Amino acid sequence: MVIISELTQEQLTDCLKPFLKKQGFKKRQTTWRKTTVDLIYVLNIQGSQWNEEDYYINVAIYIKALGEEVNPPEYRCHIRNRIENELYVCSSICEGVSNWFEKYGDIEELRILWRNSELPLMVTVDAQNYLNESN
Length: 135
Description:
Elements: H1 9-22, E1 26-28, E2 31-35, E3 39-47, E4 55-63, E5 79-83, H2 90-104, H3 107-115, E6 122-123, H4 125-133
Antiparallel strand pairs: 1-2, 2-3, 3-4, 4-5, 5-6
Helix pairs in contact: 1-2
């Protein structure tokens, strides 16, 4: 069993690649994207500015009705979060990513989560307004 803190960023990328490809994601540099009718799923591996051995797994949702981006970077997405990676093994990371996109990867589910105040903390005002108007 390999613990993520022992994985390099390159090893993590190699771990995620087959899983994300099977899920329909396409990779460009350190970012994977998957487009659906209403949304674009984004996963990005971000290196730490303080320690080159540290990195973050950022996950995000871009709501297509709120913009025209085809390949949005994670930081311009409407709903964003970070997968915690302190003690995860590679299979757990894949499971965490899968669970996150399953929970937030449907526009109707996003509306329900908005009504129940269950969205992640990083949600743009545009997304909040859009999901509120959709009620």
